Amino acid sequence: MTITVFDSLDDNEPGVPEEIIGLEYHFLPPERQTKIDLALRGLQADLHLEFMLAVLRVTINNRPLNGATPPTRALLRKLLQAMDTEDAEVMLYESPYNDLGAGRREEEPRITWWDFDIADELCEFQDLRSVRAFLEFGSGTSSGHPKSEAQALHDLLLQGLVGDSTNYAIWGCANVRTAGAPEPSANCGANGGLWPAEHVSPWFRGVFWDDLLFILNPPESTLSILAITSS
Fold first, then answer.
1. Structural domain boundaries of the chain?
2. Quick one: average pLDDT of 168-194?
3. 179 vs 173, higher pLDDT
4. How much is the pLDDT for 9?
5. Which of 32, 150, 156, 180 has a CB 3.0–4.6 Å from the CB of 145, allowing a cystine?
6. Does residue 15 have a pLDDT over 80?
7. At residue 141, what are phi and psi to the nearest 5 degrees?
C-alpha cells in the first residue's frame, strides 16, 4: 500500500505531494517471531490484557530507509501521517502478528476510529516502558511476574522486534511511572504524553496501562506498532 504525504503551509489550501510512503507487512525471521510469541504469552498470562501488534516495512519514494538514518521524531511524524488513513488502520486490525501468543480473545475485533497523527505528543523511551510495567505489576486484578522474569520477557519482545539493531527508537503515549522506582528519562512532547482512550482511539478502555507504542528501526526499514489495553 502506498500513501502520498502532502505538505502545505496553509491548512485552507491543498498541499503539494511531498513524499510517497509505502507500507506493507514485514515478516521477521522465525527465531525472532518465537521470541515475540513467548513474550506475548507472558503478557497474556493476565487474562485482562488485549493487544494488537503490526510490523510494517516502510519505504519513502519507493526506497527503504537507509540503515544509518537517524530514527528521529520528524521521520516518525512522516510515517504516522501515512498511518492516519483508513486503509492503514485496517493493517493494524488484520496484522498476522495479532495471532501470536494465545491468539485473539474475541471472535471479532472492536473496530473504532484512530488518530495516528500524534508524533509531536509522544514520549521517547529507551525501553517498552508500559509493557515492562504491565509484565511486573499486572492489571491490578491479576498479579504480574517476578521482576527478573518481567525484564526477561520485555527483552524477548524488544529483541524480537529489532534484532541486533542499535539504531532504533521507541515512542509511546504513556509515561508510566512505578512507585518506589527512580523516574526514568523520557523525551516527551509539550503535554508530557497522551491518554490514548481520549486522544487516539476508543479501542483503549481507559485504564492505567493503556498505551500505543511505535518502534522505528531504520536498519530493517520497519515500523512496529503495539497497542495494549486491559478490560
1. 2-230
2. 73
3. 173
4. 40
5. 150
6. no
7. -100, -15
Q: Which three cell numbers stand for residue 142?
A: 491479576
- Residue 49's DSSP bridge partners are 230
Helices (H), 163-226: 196-199
- Which amino acid is located at 80 in the chain? L
For 90-122, what is each residue's pLDDT tens digit?
999 999 999 887 755 555 667 889 999 999 999
Q: From the centroid of its chain, how far is CA 20? A: 22
State whether residue 188 is helix, strand or coil.
strand
Confidence (pLDDT) at 62 = 92
Amino acid at residue number 221: S
Q: Please write the tens of the pLDDT for every residue from 115-148.
A: 999 999 999 998 998 999 889 888 766 778 898 9
- Cβ proximity of 5 and 60 under 8 Å: no
In this structure, how many other beta carbons lie within 10 angstroms of the beta carbon of residue 142? 13
Cell 531504520 -> residue: 218
Question: Which position has the grid cell 523520557?
Answer: 186
| DSSP 8-state symbol, 96 | G
Residue 22 parent element (H or E):
strand 16-25
Strands (E) across 61-189 are located at 63-64, 123-125, 169-172, 187-188
- Round to whole Å and give the CA distance between 136 and 13: 49
Angle (deg, nearest 10), helices 147-162 and 30-43? 140
Does 223 score more than 90 pLDDT? yes
